[in-house]
Amino acid sequence: MKHFNKLFAAAVLCAGLSAQAQDADHPWAVTVGANAVNTKVSTTSNFSNRMGGYFKTSDWNILPSVSYLNVARYLGDGFSIGLVGSVNKIDKFIAPASEGYLKYNPGDLTYYGIDAEIKYSFKEILKSKVIDPFILVGGGYTFMGDASQGTVNGGAGLNFWFTKNVALTVQSTYKHSFSDSRLPDVGVASHIQHFAGIRFQFGGKDTDGDGILDKYDECPEVPGLAEFNGCPDTDGDGIPDHLDECPDVPGLPEFNGCPDTDGDGIPDNKDECPEVPGLAEFNGCPDTDGDGIPDHLDECPDVPGLPEFNGCPDTDGDGIPDNKDECPEVPGLAEFNGCPDTDGDGVPDNKDECPEVPGPKENKGCPWPDRDGDGVPDHLDKCPDVPGPASNNGCPEVKEIKAEQVKQLNDYGKTLLFHTGKYTFQDASYSVLDNMVKIMKEYPTANFHIAGYTDSTGSDRINLPLSDNRANAVKVYLIEKGIDSSRLTSKGYGSKDPIASNKTVKGRELNRRVEIQLAK
């Protein structure tokens, strides 16, 4: 019984999802419900007494559960064929007796019935959408306890339709048995079986699931609305999509469902400028400047222009339209975007800082300055304030420094005196430094390396930075006196490369020196 209850619940759920349709549209039907069996079959000639006996509920065997299932297929013209399965328990068995009928409990006989039936519905004849009486004939096989027997069936019933596909069904079927015995577990008695249940019709094809069967649906592949025969109206403008030239945008009937956003009488789908009112001759686009070129094709829509320049003017008449002319008021050259080059130096006047005088592009059209007038421009002249040939980068020719001048510089370096443990000069050293400056200025193209040394007194940790600082002190002084810093390098070497013995005072004094070396 539990399984029948689950089946019933599932059937109700399916009914709730069913689309509305008539039998011809939904040819399948399932009915689930309860049944009652009455084994009392009256043989009286009085028809009313006989019928009263059939419907005396106190004689009915009723199973308080879902106890029958009917599956039917509609054939057409009101006819359908079905298969019925039912189950019950017989605890009220009525058998003929010498003084009428005997009712007793045969021991809860289990009842099973399997029946086929052909029904005829009067619904179409009555033209009713609610009341649906029917008659049926058929046959089946019944199991009653240990006995079983085939039967010939006939009956009638009524469907009461709540919707087009859900109905309450009541039915009574007389099952005539050909058994010779009516005894329980021996034969199957002829009997009446009553049914009450819910009927669900389904089976029509609705591809898009919109509740409109495909054969009535003008748009069977797309969910739609009943008022449009199953076709959708996506934009909700009252014009179904298959007749709407603009199905995604609400529009007007006079424009086949398309809108006219700018109100110029040209629907958006044919309006090349749907947001701006325009003219029909320009497909709905305006011509603001009135030059005969619509704005969407006019590169200068606010100024009257010429067709050859896409609606733009050429104020200076140089063949270059104003929107591409960097000098629209002055005739110019195409290579300079419409600007002239008065001095012909290849730099247009609008970018030439000296438009009347030729000059290189690198100097914004101006000639390079040459302060010393030696023909070598200042930016290439290493001696911009002293005339000199280009072969010497604008500097005057000078003789090369000789070994005796380098020796003289070294002799001066050896006489430099520093304060003890420091890299500051003693007063006597300044005249020596000035003599070194004089020699270096005589040879402006010569480069020098200044090497600082100490004696071996003390560790390298002290001597190396001290010698480096002393060499750098000489370099700084020379630069301050006018020697170009690019000509000088310096480095301290500590107590390396002594030129005398560090064991004597005189030797250590000689080793505390600065050497001037000619750099290549």
TrEMBL record:
<keyword id="KW-0626">Porin</keyword>
<dbReference type="GO" id="GO:0015288">
    <property type="term" value="F:porin activity"/>
</dbReference>
<dbReference type="InterPro" id="IPR011250">
    <property type="entry name" value="OMP/PagP_B-barrel"/>
</dbReference>
<keyword id="KW-0998">Cell outer membrane</keyword>
<dbReference type="Pfam" id="PF02412">
    <property type="entry name" value="TSP_3"/>
</dbReference>
<dbReference type="InterPro" id="IPR003367">
    <property type="entry name" value="Thrombospondin_3-like_rpt"/>
</dbReference>
<protein>
    <submittedName>
        <fullName>Outer membrane protein OmpA</fullName>
    </submittedName>
</protein>
<feature type="domain" description="OmpA-like">
    <location>
        <begin position="405"/>
        <end position="520"/>
    </location>
</feature>
<keyword id="KW-0406">Ion transport</keyword>
<dbReference type="GO" id="GO:0009279">
    <property type="term" value="C:cell outer membrane"/>
</dbReference>
<dbReference type="InterPro" id="IPR006665">
    <property type="entry name" value="OmpA-like"/>
</dbReference>
<feature type="region of interest" description="Disordered">
    <location>
        <begin position="306"/>
        <end position="372"/>
    </location>
</feature>
<keyword id="KW-0732">Signal</keyword>
<dbReference type="InterPro" id="IPR050330">
    <property type="entry name" value="Bact_OuterMem_StrucFunc"/>
</dbReference>
<dbReference type="GO" id="GO:0007155">
    <property type="term" value="P:cell adhesion"/>
</dbReference>
<dbReference type="GO" id="GO:0046930">
    <property type="term" value="C:pore complex"/>
</dbReference>
<dbReference type="InterPro" id="IPR036737">
    <property type="entry name" value="OmpA-like_sf"/>
</dbReference>
<dbReference type="InterPro" id="IPR006664">
    <property type="entry name" value="OMP_bac"/>
</dbReference>
<keyword id="KW-0812">Transmembrane</keyword>
<dbReference type="Pfam" id="PF00691">
    <property type="entry name" value="OmpA"/>
</dbReference>
<keyword id="KW-0813">Transport</keyword>
<dbReference type="InterPro" id="IPR028974">
    <property type="entry name" value="TSP_type-3_rpt"/>
</dbReference>
<feature type="signal peptide">
    <location>
        <begin position="1"/>
        <end position="21"/>
    </location>
</feature>
<dbReference type="GO" id="GO:0006811">
    <property type="term" value="P:monoatomic ion transport"/>
</dbReference>
<dbReference type="GO" id="GO:0005509">
    <property type="term" value="F:calcium ion binding"/>
</dbReference>
<keyword id="KW-1134">Transmembrane beta strand</keyword>
<keyword id="KW-0472">Membrane</keyword>
<feature type="compositionally biased region" description="Basic and acidic residues">
    <location>
        <begin position="348"/>
        <end position="372"/>
    </location>
</feature>
